[in-house]
């Protein structure tokens, strides 16, 4: 264990971009196996190589910069996906709708009949059936 720690000393290690590349590589190899495509297999090897190269790299500043650029693209997508997942999880107990004036997503408990809703963003008041 100490030898591994010595080997990894001064190296970048894993980050969100490395994990995304790992998942992309695994997805590509699964797709390549499904369609028995050698081009996609080669592509998955390239992605795995880039992933390992980033983890073993000693240029920490450049790898951090790459990860930062990746997160600037990925974070809004991840946030949208997470809110969709939360909406799916909560659809049994909550009703989701948009504010008619500012399009803000609002949730209200289900089965309460007609309720007066005040938008938390623009303070617009409207009646909604839940
Ligand atoms: Zn609103």
List the total number of helices: 4
Multimer state: single chain
How much is the average pLDDT? 94
Number of domains: 2
Total DSSP E strands: 4
As residue ranges, the low-confidence spans are none
Please trace the helix and strand order, writing H or E for each element. HHHHEEEE
Main beta sheet: strand number and arrangement?
2 strands, antiparallel
Intertermini distance: 58 Å
The molecules bound to the chains, other than polymers, are: zinc ion
Helix-and-strand structural type:
alpha+beta
> Approximately how much helix is present in the residues?
55-70%
- Cα-atom Rg, whole angstroms? 23 Å
- Shape descriptor: elongated
* Widest beta sheet: strand line-up: 1-2
Beta content:
15-25%
Helices, strands, pairings?
Layout: H1 2-8, H2 16-35, H3 38-56, H4 60-90, E1 94-98, E2 105-109, E3 114-118, E4 125-129
Antiparallel strand pairs: 1-2, 3-4
Helix pairs in contact: 2-3
Residues 99, 101-102, 104, 119, 121-122, 124 line the site of zinc ion.
Describe the structure concisely.
The protein has four helices and four strands.
Q: What report would you give on this structure?
A:
The chain is an alpha+beta fold and 130 residues long. It has two domains: 1-89, no CATH class; 91-130, no CATH class. Helices cover 59% and strands 15% of the residues. The chain has four helices and four strands, in the order ααααββββ. The protein has a two-stranded antiparallel ribbon. The protein has a two-stranded antiparallel ribbon with strand order 3-4. Helix 2 packs antiparallel against helix 3. The chain is elongated. The relative contact order is 0.10. It binds zinc ion.
């Amino acid at each position: 264990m100490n030898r591994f720690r010595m080997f990894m000393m001064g190296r970048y290690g894993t980050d969100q971009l490395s994990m995304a590349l790992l998942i992309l590589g695994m997805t590509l190899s699964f797709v390549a196996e499904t369609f028995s495509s050698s081009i996609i297999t080669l592509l998955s090897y390239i992605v795995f190589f880039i992933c390992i190269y980033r983890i073993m790299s000693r240029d920490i500043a450049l790898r951090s910069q790459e990860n930062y650029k990746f997160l600037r693209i990925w974070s809004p997508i991840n946030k949208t996906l997470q809110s969709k997942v939360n909406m799916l999880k909560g659809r049994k107990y909550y009703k989701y709708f948009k504010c008619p004036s500012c399009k803000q997503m609002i949730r209200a408990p289900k089965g309460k009949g007609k309720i007066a809703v005040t938008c938390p963003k623009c303070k617009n008041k409207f009646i909604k059936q839940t």
